């Protein structure tokens, strides 16, 4: 195991190239199982969640080959059946996409319950509602087992906007007989990217990116070569890094409109945000203003940027309010932020942040992927040294985070977990 040692208070200046979107790549890798020929995926991020999903596929006799670090070839023509029950499945939430893909291809699926970051209850009832509407029988006791004599198009009105269920129902419907309509669908960029990928295989999906998606079932799907979109959350994390260190960072290889809500909020806080075709430059400022934020499904402010923006607002004088409307328990990391001296009160889904002049380096835990990123951001801004344990969470979703930050002036070291730590005692008193 490793931990990070961050030497704080160094403004970050320079540029950073953004990798492919984790949450698009995970869905699209699963979707590749629906093709009856080879699929080549470009701009795949080199992160642990992807490697873990590839291992699950390998155990199902899918042949995967990395043509280079970011290009993956998937040949599922020799797959044995629709079973994916391994400890790798339990490591992440995105394993649930195997349900839709295997059901769509084999008309049956057996997948262990997915794992993933702990924000409280993470049900899959809407996924199951969609599969049942298409004609499947679902038994979710101990393992998720689904089967269908035949899949027929249906109308599904989702009870809430859910990325996972929207994508999973698309996966199950593309080879069904007839047309499926998903209403109250999620509109995230990774939902659109997955639909675009499926259409590149010969699927007939219209309306992705709106709240009504129509999937006209086809007989079969051929192979294709497809490039994953850039990661909006990785980009947003570096945009906040510029603001919290009062630096000047250009995030490159991005689709700026995917970060519109993040850019708008950073401008409201006082940072300068300059957009060009495929890049966004963020320049921090000395005097920042407190704001109110409510996380919402796309195009609202993304919940996956909530811990990162809260770390920033911890250093902004005045009172900011964060309303987490998507997850019922996504403020677990606040206890860790308080170790830096942050002044935050949490009541259910609301956090009230009274910004402090300085955060002070300390030892913290990364309690989940985006919380880990928030700890890094706080450490970059804090006086003295910060140690972050559970780096594996961060490695699940960020490629080369330490190297990318150090290339812009940060001083971060990856050290062995049992290295003794020296927190600046005089600062703590
Ligand atoms: C995806 O999770 C992302 N993960 C999450 O990102 C992200 O936070 C989330 O979407 C929201 O944008 C991946 O794409 C792998 P949801 P998902 O279904 O699909 C409720 C990260 O950091 N719900 O959109 O699991 C659910 O409890 C991760 O990259 C049901 O009630 O999220 C939540 O309150 C963390 N029943 C809300 O809907 C269901 O059947 C949104 O969940 C499904 C969801």
TrEMBL record:
Protein name, entry field: UDP-N-acetylglucosamine 1-carboxyvinyltransferase
Subcellular location: Cytoplasm
GO biological process: cell division; cell wall organization; peptidoglycan biosynthetic process; regulation of cell shape; UDP-N-acetylgalactosamine biosynthetic process
Single GO MF descriptor: UDP-N-acetylglucosamine 1-carboxyvinyltransferase activity
Keywords for this protein: Cell cycle, Cell division, Cell shape, Cell wall biogenesis/degradation, Cytoplasm, Peptidoglycan synthesis, Pyruvate, Transferase
SUPFAM superfamilies: EPT/RTPC-like
Active site (record annotation): 117 (proton donor)
Pathway where it operates: Cell wall biogenesis; peptidoglycan biosynthesis
EC number(s) from the headed UniProt entry: 2.5.1.7
Catalytic reaction equation(s): phosphoenolpyruvate + UDP-N-acetyl-alpha-D-glucosamine = UDP-N-acetyl-3-O-(1-carboxyvinyl)-alpha-D-glucosamine + phosphate
HAMAP family, alphabetized: MurA (MF_00111)
Gene3D superfamilies tied to this protein: Enolpyruvate transferase domain
Binding site for phosphoenolpyruvate: 22-23
UniProt binding sites for UDP-N-acetyl-alpha-D-glucosamine: 93, 122-126, 304, 326
PANTHER family cross-referenced by the UniProt entry: UDP-N-ACETYLGLUCOSAMINE 1-CARBOXYVINYLTRANSFERASE (PTHR43783), UDP-N-ACETYLGLUCOSAMINE 1-CARBOXYVINYLTRANSFERASE 2 (PTHR43783:SF2)
Family statement drawn from the similarity comment of this UniProt entry: Belongs to the EPSP synthase family. MurA subfamily.
In-chain residues carrying the UniProt-annotated modification 2-(S-cysteinyl)pyruvic acid O-phosphothioketal: 117
Boundaries of every Enolpyruvate transferase domain copy: 8-405
GO cellular component terms given for this protein: cytoplasm
Role noted for this protein: Cell wall formation. Adds enolpyruvyl to UDP-N-acetylglucosamine.
């Amino acid at each position: 195991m490793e931990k990070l040692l961050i030497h704080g208070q160094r403004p970050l200046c320079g540029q950073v190239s953004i990798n492919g979107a984790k949450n698009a790549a995970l869905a699209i890798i699963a979707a590749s199982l629906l093709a009856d020929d080879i699929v080549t995926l470009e701009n795949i991020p080199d992160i642990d969640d992807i490697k873990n999903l590839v291992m699950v596929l390998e155990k199902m006799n899918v042949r995967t080959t990395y043509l280079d670090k970011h290009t993956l070839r998937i040949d599922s023509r020799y797959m044995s059946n629709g079973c994916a029950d391994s400890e790798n499945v339990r490591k992440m939430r995105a394993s649930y996409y195997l349900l839709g893909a295997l059901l769509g291809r084999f008309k049956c699926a057996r997948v262990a319950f997915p794992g993933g970051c702990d924000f409280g209850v993470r049900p899959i009832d809407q996924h199951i509602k969609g599969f049942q509407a298409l004609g499947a029988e679902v038994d979710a006791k101990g393992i998720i087992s689904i089967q269908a004599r035949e899949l027929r198009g249906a109308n599904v009105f989702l009870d809430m906007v859910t990325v996972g269920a929207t994508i999973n129902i698309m996966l199950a419907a593309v080879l069904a007989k007839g047309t499926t309509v998903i209403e109250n669908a999620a509109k995230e960029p990774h939902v659109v990217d997955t639909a675009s990928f499926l259409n590149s295989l010969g699927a007939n999906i219209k309306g992705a990116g709106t709240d009504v998606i129509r999937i006209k079932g086809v007989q079969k799907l051929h192979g294709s070569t497809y490039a994953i979109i850039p990661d909006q959350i990785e980009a947003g994390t570096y945009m906040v890094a510029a603001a919290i260190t009062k630096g000047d960072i250009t995030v490159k290889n991005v689709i700026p409109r995917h970060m519109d809500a993040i850019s708008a909020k950073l401008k409201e806080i006082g940072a300068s945000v300059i957009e060009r075709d495929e890049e966004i430059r963020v320049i921090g400022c000395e005097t920042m203003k407190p704001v109110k934020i409510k996380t919402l499904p796309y195009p609202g402010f993304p919940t996956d940027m909530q811990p990162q923006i809260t770390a920033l607002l911890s250093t902004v004088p005045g009172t900011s309010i964060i309303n987490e409307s998507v997850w019922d328990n996504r403020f677990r990391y606040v206890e860790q932020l308080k170790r830096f001296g942050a002044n935050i009160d949490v009541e259910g889904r609301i956090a009230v942040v009274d910004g402090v002049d300085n955060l002070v380096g300390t030892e913290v835990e990364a309690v989940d992927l985006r919380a880990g990123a928030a700890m890094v951001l706080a450490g970059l801004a804090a006086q003295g040294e910060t140690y972050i344990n559970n780096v594996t969470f961060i490695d699940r979703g960020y490629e080369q985070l330490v190297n990318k930050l150090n290339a812009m002036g940060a001083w971060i070291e990856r050290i062995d977990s049992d290295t003794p730590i020296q927190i600046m005692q005089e600062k703590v008193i």
